[in-house]
Amino acid sequence: MSTETAAQAEDRATAPPPAGWEEARARVYAVGLSAALPAVSRSLADLDGHTLAEPLTTRTDLPAFPTSSVDGWAVRGEGPWRVVGRVLAGNRPAPLTEEGSTVEIATGAMVPEGTTAILRVEESTRTGDGRVDGTPRPTPEWREPGEEAYSGEELLPAGTPVDPALIGLAASCGHDTLRVRRAPRAALLVFGDELLTKGPPAAGRVRDALGPAVPAWLRRYGCQVRPSDVVGPVADTLPAHVAAVRSALAGADLVCTTGGTMHGPVDHLHPTLAALGADYVVNTVAVRPGFPMLLARLVSDDGRVRFVAGLPGNPQSAIVALVSLVAPLLAGLQGRPMPVLPHATLAEPIAGRGDYTHLALVRLDRAAGTAHPVRHVGSAMLRGLAGADGFAVVRPGTTGAVGDRVPIVPLPLLPGERSW
Fold first, then answer.
1. Which site from 56, 172, 207, 319 is most exposed, i.e. has the minimal number of CB atoms within 10 Å?
2. CA distance 53 to 336
3. 10 Å Cβ neighbour count for 53?
């Protein structure tokens, strides 16, 4: 027998129909982008994990001057050549003005003006009178200015995640600081008096699987989550929920909650959002598993925008909510492009879910470009998720047949890892 109150039944009855999955993703991304985190200047040592707020351009030609590609001899004219000096990396050499002259040159050193060729040291010999002889290769053995990029050229667009490779490139371009958007700060509130935080499930209580896992997923999406930002289980009362959400919002750009997204007797998330003056961006999404999920927005008196993502209590459904709503929101907040979904060919059939989008856990064979459904994929199960690479998208009103090309929602990777 249901214990739903009359007020809860009225709220449920007047709730808007669920948003389509693709519509929800687009709506959430647009809202995140409109509230993108402010740009700040950071030193190269403090850039990793941030996002470019401006395009990365070069301050000089790359290389900035002719640079020797090998150790050897910078020569002018025909040999044998008379040695007149040495050029090491970091020095500005005098021009070679005399025919038949040469200077010893190190890899990376500036090529003297007047050089007609560079002779590799391993392909040279010394004559009895101390001159250098040999046959230079026909192709130049130095890098020309602008060979990699010209001064002012855009190398990477705004919205590019900063990784070690980008930091090194920025340094080579002559930058000491860059304008970036910081990583969003996130918090997690775990709802449910039935949850245990240690030991095996017993006596009607289940182990909390989301409290330890969701922060790690959020970090893979570029968030900062400290251990103190994870709170729960929060008592199943409205005052406790309001106090917990209000406290978490004080220091976070995004607060994720687990459980409480329905309208049952101990589901207090919707009343909490009403008490805090939140507006729904998305209130339920037509996707299975993952129903119901939500995203709400709060604007403080100083104009600061923060978000609450309501994840279902069932573990796999919560991860579906993360990839469906949280991922595009975080992309927008960081000024990154909307994630483009790769495609794969179904190696086995996947059932549809009627009017709902079906996100089906799959393992990818990257060499073959195929997707294989995994087992143990119930909403409350995590076994299938642990062996999966992402979700195959089966659109409403369709089924996934063998050979169909379908979008894939990849599970988030560690920073620096490359998607398939």
1. 207
2. 9
3. 21
Nearest in space to 89 (alpha carbons), one of 65, 103, 105: 105
Alpha-carbon torsion (228, 329, 257, 378), positive or negative: negative
**Residue whose tokens read 């005052």:** 239
pLDDT the model gives residue 207: 83
**Cα separation of 221 and 226, whole Å?**
14
d(CA 189, CA 9): 25
What pLDDT does residue 8 have? 47
CA–CA separation, 416 and 420 (whole Å)? 13
Specify the pLDDT at position 414: 59
pLDDT value of position 15: 59
Give me the domains of the chain, ranges plus CATH numbers: 6-37+183-333 (3.40.980.10), 40-61+147-181 (3.90.105.10), 67-143 (2.170.190.11), 343-410 (2.40.340.10)
Alpha carbon distances (Å) from 20 to 15, 183, 282, 287, 358: 15, 29, 10, 8, 11
Burial class (CB within 10 angstroms; exposed 0-12, middle 13-18, buried 19+) of 355: exposed
285 within 8 A of 320, measured Cβ to Cβ? no
Torsions phi, psi for 8 (to 5 deg) = -65, -40
What is the mean pLDDT for each group of 10 consecutive residues in the chain (420 residues)? 47 68 97 96 95 97 95 96 95 95 97 97 94 95 95 96 96 97 95 81 82 93 93 92 96 94 85 96 94 93 93 92 97 94 96 96 94 88 89 96 97 62
Q: What is the pLDDT of residue 324?
A: 97
Single-letter amino acid, residue 53 = A
| Sequence-separated (6 or more) residues with CB below 8 Å from residue 140 | 117, 118
**pTM for the predicted model, two decimal places:** 0.85
